[in-house]
Amino acid sequence: MPEIAQSPRIAPLEPPYTPDIDAALRKWMPPGAELEPLKLFRTLNVHEELASRMRPLGAGILGHGRVALPTTPLGALPMRC
User: Fold this and answer.
1) Burial zone of 28 (CB within 10 Å; 0-12 exposed, 13-18 middle, 19+ buried)
2) Does residue 71 lie within any of the structural domains?
3) What share of the chain is helix, strand, coil (3-state, %, to 5)?
4) Which tens digits make up the pLDDT trace of 10-44?
5) Which of 1, 11, 38, 45 is the most exposed place for a label (fewest CB within 10 A)?
6) pTM for this model (two decimals)
7) Average pLDDT of the chain?
């Protein structure tokens, strides 16, 4: 079967971000994190209302230590959104 090049249906936001988008993305990340926000978060923030509705879910999962932050640089992992 031939390989089909896949691109995301909704492209994640890319820096530089507007101040509003930067503030929204930082809310998804741990305090003081120097890592680039995950593509998932950057994709959700394409639609401001969707991102605001998903944030409580993310806070519930990430805020209770149930999901470990990656130790491998995200650029080294295959990502598909």
Assistant:
1) buried
2) no
3) 40, 0, 60
4) 899 999 999 999 999 988 888 888 888 889 889 99
5) 1
6) 0.63
7) 79
